[in-house]
Amino acid sequence: GPLPSVAALHASRRADLDGTARAIAELLAVVPAEHAVPLGFLEAAGTLAKIDSFGAGIDSLLVADQISISAGAVRFRHSSLRETWRGTYGGVVHNKWLGIWYEAFRLAGYESRLLSSSGLVQPLTTLLVEHRPVDLGGLVGQLLQHGAQEDALALLDGASRDVQGGGAGGQDVIESALMAAQVRMDLGRYSEVQQDLRMIETARPDSSIQRRADLISMKLALRLNTYEAVWALSKKLKTGLDYDQEAERELIVNTALRDLLDLEAIATSVERLRQLADHAPSKKPEILRATARSYAKIGRAEDACKAATDALKLAEESGDVRAMGNAHLALAEALRHAGDRENAVDHYRKGALLAKSYGNRDSLLWCRLGEACAWLEANDFAQMDTALAEVRRIVDEPGFEHPLEGAHASLIAAVAAIVQDPESNAEPALERYAELGVGWPGVFFDGIKAGRPLTPIPI
Questions:
Q1: Cα separation of 384 and 24, whole Å?
Q2: Which helix (H) or strand (E) holds 263?
């Protein structure tokens, strides 16, 4: 006779399980297929669901080849198993299991890592927003700290939908939009940042909120390399800022000056940042990273390495994944400008790995660009090409804008071509910079043609 279908085989195996094992499997089916849940967290949810003989139920599921356990976390052996279990019950039962998971999260002290590692933030977003058991902003902050950007964004968007539906006041809409804009900035979703900013503008914010929105607009202008807008917003924000906001404004200005390689202005900006560090301690990690990269640009390699090392130490002490990735990038830049290419590449790669883990496209691009520079400076064109290939893949991905990073990729390739063949044409690369108002690459190319040493490439 005909072979049984996969669905029939799954149904047969389910039928052989007792009620305890079935209840555990149904509870586990709430967890997204690509995630595993800590066994202790699953057991806590099972206790709340009044599932008796939990250990025996787990054993039955293991014997039946339904689940696997690795490093203390449980998941279905195949995504198809999870889907078939999820298909055995409807919305009412699903909502019951969601409620159980939410209660287990509450009893665990609202530990954000439990939800993010288990993939349960997005399934539980509606309950988290409805009950607001803890400060949602605080929970979002925790998620961001350990790199769960998408989960943080799901919560913020859920909160925004809730308040727009009448769940809370206009201030909550604005706060959610401000936080969401910053997260989307890190993820490289610049058009969506503009939507958040329009929502804030529509809400007619007071002057303090408007200043916060203007700082985000200023950072967006920097990411899109529209420097005239950066200077205009910087001038607008000259007054009325607290120390943290003043530090944020100066950090954006500093980055723009580094883009443009205005060495005298970079040195002046660094001094302003050093003064602000005493008044804005929460910004100290960012200030250290910016001063490190600035010192590298203006030839103070020893100071650059010290500032970057201090930034990495602070980041590791805080456990902030995003800060750690950016600190590795700063240290890599300092080391490359100091001539220590081997250690620079090591830190570029550590930074890239962390950037990938939490979706920071901007940091990932600069890590790969820096690594490509290091290999070019070592005349290792094959390794350079590997790093550049990833840059181009990210830059060319539809829906994202990275104009300066794309120009830098063209610059690196053009420099490599000239090193190998002095008659190569660099004009197409220079044209991309001209569109952005960035002038130093032309001077840099002239220097190479005149016999100037290649290192360090000042990007």
A1: 50
A2: helix 263-277
pLDDT tens per residue, range 338-394: 999 999 999 999 999 999 887 788 999 999 999 999 999 999 999 999 999 999 999
- In angstroms, rounded to a whole number, what is the distance separating the alpha carbons of residues 288 and 301? 14
Determine the length of the chain: 459
> Which amino acid does the sequence have at 71?
A
Checking 81-85 for CB contacts under 8 A at 24+ apart, the result is 81/10, 82/28, 82/29, 82/31, 82/33, 83/33, 84/7, 84/10, 84/11, 84/14, 85/14, 85/25, 85/26, 85/28, 85/29
> Alpha-carbon distance 170 to 164, whole Å?
8
- Sign of the torsion angle spanned by Cα atoms 80, 32, 183, 307: negative
Sheet architecture: strand order including 37-38:
37-38, 73-76, 67-70
Task: State the Cα–Cα distance between residues 27 and 251, nearest whole angstrom.
Answer: 47
Of 13, 29, 155, which is closest to residue 87 (Cα–Cα)? 29
Segment 142-177, tens digit of pLDDT: 888 777 888 888 888 887 776 555 444 467 678 788
Do the Cβ atoms of 330 and 292 come closer than 8 Å?
A: yes
**Residue corresponding to tokens 């078939």:** 84
Q: What is the 3-state secondary structure (H, E, C) of 5-20?
A: CHHHHHHHHHHCCCHH
